[in-house]
Amino acid sequence: MLVKEYRICMPLTVEEYRIGQLYMISKHSLEQSSAGEGVEVTVNEPCEDPKHGRGQYTEKRIYLNSKLPGWAKTFVPKIFYITERAWNYYPFTITEYTCSFLPKLQIRIETKFENNRGDNNQVFVESSSSPPDEVCALDIAFDELPERYYKESEDLRLFHSVKTGRGPLVEGWRSDTQPIMCSYKRVCARFEVYGLQGRVESFIHKNIRDVLLIGHRQAVAWIDEWSGMSLEDVREFERDLQEQTNSKLKQNTVMDSAGSRPPLLTRSLSVMDEASLRKLGVQPRHDPETQNRQPPLPMRLNSNPE
Q1: Which of 156-160's residues contact partners 24+ apart within 8 Å by CB, and which partners?
Q2: Is the C-alpha dihedral spanning 167, 170, 172, 176 positive or negative?
Q3: What angle do CA 231, 34, 73 make, to 5 degrees?
Q4: Residue among 115, 109, 114 at smallest CA distance from 87
Q5: Predicted model pTM
Q6: I want to staple 201 with a disulfide (CB 3.0 to 4.6 A). Which of 2, 35, 104, 109 is the partner?
């Protein structure tokens, strides 16, 4: 298991980011959904927890076969999706990623948002998860992204908000910018398969780092689009874009089914590909998706096979 803590500062308040985060996730999901790949929202409903109070539970399928590295494509099906289950008790959230095709794959992310400069070393002191192997402070303005993800309109060294007057961000901006907040994320990635564990867990964290940079950059760069929205406004926006996103995926599936190539979304990973599982050294087994939508107890994560 590889555990890292990421700290991402933004020139926002925690209260503002509650709106910005929902807006960013919805718009980003729509942008990324095309050609039978992207994010399908299957559940979005209120939930409640004795400790954290009322929140929002979401469940999504993330189709991403084309984004896998070449070595991984050799043992996964043509159509590959990961299930995301998230409990949003803002300013605290829990997110889990699983895949029935790869029962040894588990990712858990605990997030806390605070109005500070990323200098709180006690954020996860109550967490039962293993301590992080590394603490990574990400700079949304100056840390490099892969060229394929770069957009000048989202470059925070160039951006200026008309509504709020914020930006552009200059070198050292985290030391004196006001307002400022930090997104603290403890990410536990586990893939206990002999010969692949280190490579897969490192690959997971590399991609999580890129996703965190992109998402937090977009939340700031799009501030003039969501600034002034109420929670009710952004929830309505979220519902509208989720319908568009799901429709986009279904339309692409129908088009592919009518064409000469096999339909993209016909193979469900709830049925194990036994030959592929054996290549991974994993004994095939049925793993029906749980219906329990209550926040899970902290997962037992360790680096040794159980």
Answers
A1: 156/217, 156/220, 156/221, 159/220, 159/221
A2: negative
A3: 115
A4: 109
A5: 0.78
A6: 2
